[in-house]
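As described in the Methods, two query proteins were run sequentially through the folding procedure within a single session, without resetting any intermediate state between them. The first query and its resulting C-alpha coordinates are shown here.
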Amino acid sequence: MAPRVRNVLGLPPGSIRALLTLMTVGFIVVQTARDIRVSLLWFESLMIVLAHYFAHRRFVPISPTMREKLKCEDLIEDDTHPLYLPQHSLRAIIVLAFVGLAVYLGLQGRLRDPVAMPVFISVGSYFLGIGFGTFMSWKNRGKTTTTASGFENIKAVVTLVAVAFAIAVQLFGWQQTIPFADKLEALPLALMLFYFGSR
Protein backbone atom coordinates (compact mmCIF):
# COMPACT_ATOMS: atom_id res chain seq x y z
CA MET A 1 0.00 0.00 0.00
CA ALA A 2 1.52 3.31 -1.10
CA PRO A 3 1.75 6.10 1.46
CA ARG A 4 -0.84 8.85 1.23
CA VAL A 5 0.76 12.05 -0.13
CA ARG A 6 -0.35 15.19 1.70
CA ASN A 7 1.97 17.94 0.52
CA VAL A 8 0.18 21.11 1.63
CA LEU A 9 0.97 23.96 -0.80
CA GLY A 10 3.36 21.60 -2.56
CA LEU A 11 5.88 21.86 0.29
CA PRO A 12 7.54 18.98 2.14
CA PRO A 13 5.58 17.59 5.12
CA GLY A 14 5.87 19.75 8.24
CA SER A 15 6.64 22.93 6.29
CA ILE A 16 3.58 24.88 7.45
CA ARG A 17 4.37 24.05 11.10
CA ALA A 18 7.96 25.10 10.43
CA LEU A 19 6.84 28.43 8.94
CA LEU A 20 4.48 29.08 11.87
CA THR A 21 7.31 28.26 14.26
CA LEU A 22 9.77 30.60 12.53
CA MET A 23 7.15 33.36 12.47
CA THR A 24 6.36 32.94 16.18
CA VAL A 25 9.99 32.75 17.32
CA GLY A 26 11.01 35.58 15.00
CA PHE A 27 8.22 37.86 16.23
CA ILE A 28 9.01 37.26 19.91
CA VAL A 29 12.76 37.74 19.39
CA VAL A 30 12.31 40.96 17.37
CA GLN A 31 9.76 42.46 19.77
CA THR A 32 11.94 41.63 22.77
CA ALA A 33 14.99 43.15 21.06
CA ARG A 34 12.89 46.27 20.39
CA ASP A 35 11.95 46.39 24.12
CA ILE A 36 8.26 45.74 23.36
CA ARG A 37 6.46 43.31 25.66
CA VAL A 38 4.62 40.48 23.87
CA SER A 39 1.22 39.30 25.05
CA LEU A 40 0.51 36.09 26.93
CA LEU A 41 -1.01 34.55 23.80
CA TRP A 42 2.35 34.75 22.03
CA PHE A 43 4.04 33.02 24.98
CA GLU A 44 1.44 30.28 24.82
CA SER A 45 2.09 29.90 21.09
CA LEU A 46 5.82 29.76 21.78
CA MET A 47 5.37 26.97 24.34
CA ILE A 48 3.31 25.00 21.82
CA VAL A 49 6.00 25.19 19.14
CA LEU A 50 8.79 24.45 21.63
CA ALA A 51 6.90 21.39 22.84
CA HIS A 52 6.40 20.24 19.26
CA TYR A 53 10.02 20.61 18.19
CA PHE A 54 11.73 19.49 21.37
CA ALA A 55 9.53 17.23 23.54
CA HIS A 56 7.56 15.73 20.62
CA ARG A 57 10.78 14.80 18.86
CA ARG A 58 11.95 12.29 21.50
CA PHE A 59 11.25 9.23 19.46
CA VAL A 60 11.41 5.69 20.68
CA PRO A 61 14.12 4.04 18.58
CA ILE A 62 12.50 2.00 15.81
CA SER A 63 13.98 0.19 12.86
CA PRO A 64 13.90 1.80 9.38
CA THR A 65 11.53 -0.96 8.23
CA MET A 66 9.10 -0.26 11.06
CA ARG A 67 9.33 3.51 10.44
CA GLU A 68 8.42 3.00 6.76
CA LYS A 69 5.53 0.71 7.74
CA LEU A 70 4.17 3.33 10.17
CA LYS A 71 4.50 6.04 7.52
CA CYS A 72 2.60 3.89 5.00
CA GLU A 73 -0.19 3.36 7.54
CA ASP A 74 -0.24 7.14 8.14
CA LEU A 75 0.56 6.66 11.84
CA ILE A 76 3.62 8.89 11.79
CA GLU A 77 4.52 11.79 9.53
CA ASP A 78 7.66 12.14 7.50
CA ASP A 79 8.57 15.72 8.33
CA THR A 80 12.32 15.36 8.69
CA HIS A 81 13.05 18.03 6.04
CA PRO A 82 10.40 20.77 6.29
CA LEU A 83 11.01 23.73 3.97
CA TYR A 84 13.74 21.60 2.31
CA LEU A 85 16.01 22.31 5.29
CA PRO A 86 18.51 19.76 6.64
CA GLN A 87 17.30 17.51 9.44
CA HIS A 88 17.30 19.12 12.92
CA SER A 89 17.91 22.60 11.46
CA LEU A 90 14.61 24.00 12.82
CA ARG A 91 15.65 23.16 16.38
CA ALA A 92 19.06 24.73 15.76
CA ILE A 93 17.45 27.90 14.37
CA ILE A 94 15.15 28.18 17.42
CA VAL A 95 18.03 27.80 19.88
CA LEU A 96 20.32 30.16 17.94
CA ALA A 97 17.55 32.79 17.75
CA PHE A 98 17.28 32.94 21.54
CA VAL A 99 21.06 32.72 22.06
CA GLY A 100 21.45 35.57 19.56
CA LEU A 101 18.82 37.58 21.42
CA ALA A 102 20.64 36.97 24.72
CA VAL A 103 23.97 38.10 23.22
CA TYR A 104 22.36 41.18 21.66
CA LEU A 105 20.64 42.21 24.89
CA GLY A 106 23.72 41.33 26.94
CA LEU A 107 25.89 43.67 24.85
CA GLN A 108 23.35 46.42 25.52
CA GLY A 109 23.14 45.61 29.24
CA ARG A 110 19.44 44.73 28.91
CA LEU A 111 19.34 41.06 29.92
CA ARG A 112 17.47 41.88 33.15
CA ASP A 113 14.96 44.25 31.56
CA PRO A 114 11.30 43.63 32.51
CA VAL A 115 10.55 42.88 28.84
CA ALA A 116 13.40 40.38 28.39
CA MET A 117 13.12 38.52 31.71
CA PRO A 118 9.82 36.68 31.02
CA VAL A 119 11.17 35.49 27.66
CA PHE A 120 14.39 34.16 29.14
CA ILE A 121 12.72 32.65 32.20
CA SER A 122 10.22 30.78 30.02
CA VAL A 123 12.55 29.64 27.26
CA GLY A 124 15.56 29.14 29.51
CA SER A 125 13.67 27.00 32.02
CA TYR A 126 12.22 24.82 29.28
CA PHE A 127 15.58 24.34 27.53
CA LEU A 128 17.28 23.69 30.87
CA GLY A 129 14.70 21.00 31.59
CA ILE A 130 15.23 19.44 28.16
CA GLY A 131 18.99 19.46 28.66
CA PHE A 132 18.63 17.95 32.10
CA GLY A 133 16.21 15.27 30.85
CA THR A 134 18.55 14.39 27.99
CA PHE A 135 21.51 14.16 30.37
CA MET A 136 19.61 11.92 32.77
CA SER A 137 18.45 9.67 29.92
CA TRP A 138 22.05 9.35 28.73
CA LYS A 139 23.30 8.72 32.27
CA ASN A 140 20.67 6.03 32.95
CA ARG A 141 20.93 4.41 29.51
CA GLY A 142 20.84 0.64 29.80
CA LYS A 143 19.63 0.70 33.40
CA THR A 144 16.21 -0.70 34.17
CA THR A 145 14.30 0.95 37.00
CA THR A 146 10.78 0.33 38.24
CA THR A 147 10.55 3.27 40.63
CA ALA A 148 11.25 6.98 40.28
CA SER A 149 14.58 8.21 41.64
CA GLY A 150 14.77 10.31 44.78
CA PHE A 151 15.61 13.35 42.68
CA GLU A 152 12.55 12.80 40.45
CA ASN A 153 10.35 12.69 43.55
CA ILE A 154 11.93 15.85 44.99
CA LYS A 155 11.57 17.64 41.63
CA ALA A 156 7.88 16.70 41.48
CA VAL A 157 7.15 17.79 45.07
CA VAL A 158 8.99 21.12 44.73
CA THR A 159 7.17 21.91 41.48
CA LEU A 160 3.76 20.93 42.87
CA VAL A 161 4.26 22.96 46.06
CA ALA A 162 5.51 26.04 44.16
CA VAL A 163 2.61 25.98 41.70
CA ALA A 164 0.05 25.32 44.47
CA PHE A 165 1.49 28.23 46.49
CA ALA A 166 1.34 30.57 43.47
CA ILE A 167 -2.28 29.58 42.90
CA ALA A 168 -3.13 30.13 46.58
CA VAL A 169 -1.54 33.61 46.49
CA GLN A 170 -3.78 34.53 43.56
CA LEU A 171 -6.96 32.87 44.85
CA PHE A 172 -6.78 34.33 48.35
CA GLY A 173 -5.48 37.77 47.35
CA TRP A 174 -2.21 37.52 49.29
CA GLN A 175 -0.27 39.58 46.74
CA GLN A 176 -0.19 42.60 49.05
CA THR A 177 0.82 40.67 52.19
CA ILE A 178 3.70 38.63 50.76
CA PRO A 179 6.90 40.52 49.90
CA PHE A 180 7.87 40.22 46.22
CA ALA A 181 4.62 38.37 45.44
CA ASP A 182 4.59 39.85 41.94
CA LYS A 183 8.04 38.41 41.26
CA LEU A 184 7.16 35.03 42.82
CA GLU A 185 4.92 34.23 39.85
CA ALA A 186 7.98 33.63 37.69
CA LEU A 187 9.35 30.85 39.94
CA PRO A 188 6.43 28.40 39.60
CA LEU A 189 6.33 29.06 35.86
CA ALA A 190 10.07 28.37 35.58
CA LEU A 191 9.78 25.19 37.67
CA MET A 192 6.80 23.95 35.67
CA LEU A 193 8.52 24.55 32.33
CA PHE A 194 11.67 22.88 33.65
CA TYR A 195 9.60 19.91 34.81
CA PHE A 196 7.81 19.52 31.46
CA GLY A 197 11.06 19.98 29.57
CA SER A 198 12.87 17.35 31.62
CA ARG A 199 10.19 14.64 31.23
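Immediately afterward, the second query was submitted; its sequence and C-alpha coordinates are:
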Amino acid sequence: MTQHDSDLPMELAAPARRALTQAGYLRLEQLTRVSEVELKQLHGIGPNAIKQLRSALSARGLSFAERK
Protein backbone atom coordinates (compact mmCIF):
# COMPACT_ATOMS: atom_id res chain seq x y z
CA MET A 1 0.00 0.00 0.00
CA THR A 2 1.22 3.47 -0.80
CA GLN A 3 0.11 6.74 0.71
CA HIS A 4 -1.71 7.39 -2.57
CA ASP A 5 -4.02 4.44 -1.87
CA SER A 6 -5.01 5.96 1.46
CA ASP A 7 -6.23 9.35 2.59
CA LEU A 8 -5.82 8.66 6.31
CA PRO A 9 -4.13 11.50 8.20
CA MET A 10 -0.35 11.55 7.77
CA GLU A 11 0.15 12.33 11.49
CA LEU A 12 -1.61 9.10 12.51
CA ALA A 13 0.74 6.92 14.56
CA ALA A 14 2.02 3.74 12.91
CA PRO A 15 0.12 1.34 15.22
CA ALA A 16 -3.16 3.13 14.50
CA ARG A 17 -2.48 3.18 10.75
CA ARG A 18 -1.66 -0.55 10.81
CA ALA A 19 -4.81 -1.33 12.80
CA LEU A 20 -6.97 0.54 10.32
CA THR A 21 -5.38 -0.93 7.19
CA GLN A 22 -5.47 -4.47 8.59
CA ALA A 23 -9.19 -3.98 9.29
CA GLY A 24 -9.64 -2.82 5.68
CA TYR A 25 -9.98 0.92 6.29
CA LEU A 26 -7.87 2.82 3.77
CA ARG A 27 -10.05 5.85 3.13
CA LEU A 28 -11.78 8.34 5.40
CA GLU A 29 -15.11 7.72 3.65
CA GLN A 30 -15.01 4.13 4.91
CA LEU A 31 -14.92 5.38 8.50
CA THR A 32 -18.36 6.95 8.10
CA ARG A 33 -19.76 3.40 8.29
CA VAL A 34 -18.18 2.61 11.67
CA SER A 35 -18.68 4.17 15.10
CA GLU A 36 -15.95 5.50 17.38
CA VAL A 37 -16.80 2.72 19.84
CA GLU A 38 -16.22 0.08 17.16
CA LEU A 39 -12.94 1.65 16.07
CA LYS A 40 -11.64 1.82 19.64
CA GLN A 41 -11.90 -1.97 19.79
CA LEU A 42 -9.07 -2.24 17.25
CA HIS A 43 -5.69 -2.78 18.88
CA GLY A 44 -3.68 0.38 18.23
CA ILE A 45 -6.60 2.80 18.12
CA GLY A 46 -6.59 5.07 21.14
CA PRO A 47 -8.02 8.46 22.08
CA ASN A 48 -5.39 10.38 20.10
CA ALA A 49 -6.06 8.40 16.91
CA ILE A 50 -9.82 8.91 17.32
CA LYS A 51 -9.26 12.66 17.78
CA GLN A 52 -7.10 12.86 14.63
CA LEU A 53 -9.57 10.83 12.60
CA ARG A 54 -12.56 12.86 13.86
CA SER A 55 -10.75 16.06 12.86
CA ALA A 56 -9.89 14.71 9.39
CA LEU A 57 -13.46 13.56 8.84
CA SER A 58 -14.86 16.89 10.05
CA ALA A 59 -12.60 18.79 7.63
CA ARG A 60 -14.42 16.96 4.81
CA GLY A 61 -17.87 17.40 6.29
CA LEU A 62 -17.96 13.75 7.35
CA SER A 63 -18.35 11.99 10.70
CA PHE A 64 -18.20 8.56 12.27
CA ALA A 65 -21.35 6.46 12.18
CA GLU A 66 -23.71 6.77 15.12
CA ARG A 67 -23.23 4.13 17.79
CA LYS A 68 -25.30 1.04 17.02
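The helical segments are 14-22, 36-40, 47-59. We note this only descriptively and draw no conclusion about the first query from it.
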